[in-house]
Amino acid sequence: MGTVAEKELDIINVQEETDPKTKKMDALIVIPAETPNSVNKYTKWLEIGIYALIVLVSQSVATILGKLYYNKGGKSTWLISLTETIAFPILLIPMIFNCTNNNNNKIPKLEYHDSKSPSLMTKLFIYVFLGFLVGVGCGLFSIGLLHLPASTFSLISSSQLAFNVLFSLFMKLEKITPLIANSIALVTISSLLLALDSSNKASSSSLSNHHNAIGFICTLIASALFGLLFSLTDLLFRKFLKKNTLREFMDVIICQSFFATCIILIGLFASKNWRNLKTEMNNFELGRLAYVMILIWISVCWQLYTYCLLGLIMKVSAVFANVITTLSAPLIPIMSVIIFNDKMSGVKAISIVLAIWGFSSYAYQQYLDELNLKGDRNGIEDESTDQQTTTI
């Protein structure tokens, strides 16, 4: 018994001898199968590596610059919240070019439903609701960053991964495994250790304790909201939006950013905080130019983060992209120690180790899932090849 390839070769030779007119057609079928694709694989993983690096760097730089803004005299949490979403028109540039050429590219791990798309009102409601989650989450993150050291803030933010998994399990988008359970437990313990460490090391001043508590609670709630956002986006694409193309996904990202920006602007003007921005800029320790540049670069970094996150989702999966974002948790504390002279306590070091362990556990589970999925696809392709050979 020969291999499938040998059988196909024998069949092709017989066809060439019996019917010369089919020679060109058979050559067209065989040649692409024999073309090596190792170069494409290397290119793909190079792109994934670049996207992942930009996600980590942009997220870390944006967080550090946000803390620098507060440390040098900035006080407006509304303004920092606004920088996270207001530069969303930048995404229209790559959207015009990419979506024109790749409109049919589907996002991995999202089921495609060939049925009627939802109405305009349904889409509008979805965009407004997701924008509300983004706006509130950005506001809470800004408050947490104001009251907590950047290192503590980033480690507490890493609980977003655990919340994302929990909400996905609740929505039946993901199945519990020992590795996932281990990841949730480790990330939760990491955040609890930071909470206990912050309460023990707080000064006797009730005001300081109050600020630490506000920062911890706001950051934790914001992490829960963004974990919910990831899970809801996955659910909405599966059940309501009916499509999983790049164009559809970027529509959601841009529209939710637009409504989130509107919500934050309403809060900025309703609170009358905008009246203090000119005075704040004039009194900024690093100068007016530095004040403006910090805000601009925070905005640019968040949009770079968003675009490259979309790249990771398209190249791999949404879950992989979320794992990459949480890897900044151990990176930001190291940068904070160098830039802001944050103290690296023993509890914080243990928290970093637990966070990395939790991320690795979750990432390894996703790696196993990818292998199983690839094996299933190869099995389907082999069955299809056998059927085609039998038919011929």
Automatic annotation (TrEMBL):
Looking up InterPro entries in the UniProt record yields: EmrE-like (IPR037185), PUP_plant (IPR030182)
State the family it belongs to.
Belongs to the purine permeases (TC 2.A.7.14) family.
Instruction: Please provide, alphabetically and separated by semicolons, the GO molecular function terms listed in this UniProt record.
Output: purine nucleobase transmembrane transporter activity; purine nucleoside transmembrane transporter activity; transmembrane transporter activity
Q: Does the keyword Transit peptide apply?
A: no
Its subcellular locations are: Membrane
Gene Ontology, cellular component aspect = membrane
> What is the name of this protein?
Probable purine permease
Q: Where are the transmembrane segments?
A: 48-70, 76-97, 124-146, 176-194, 214-237, 249-270, 290-312, 319-340
- Please report the record's description of how this protein sits within the membrane: Multi-pass membrane protein
Q: Which domain of life is it from?
A: Eukaryota
Q: Which UniProt keywords apply?
A: Membrane, Transmembrane, Transmembrane helix, Transport
Task: Please give the SUPFAM superfamilies that the UniProt record associates with this protein.
Answer: Multidrug resistance efflux transporter EmrE
Q: Which organism is it from?
A: Solanum tuberosum
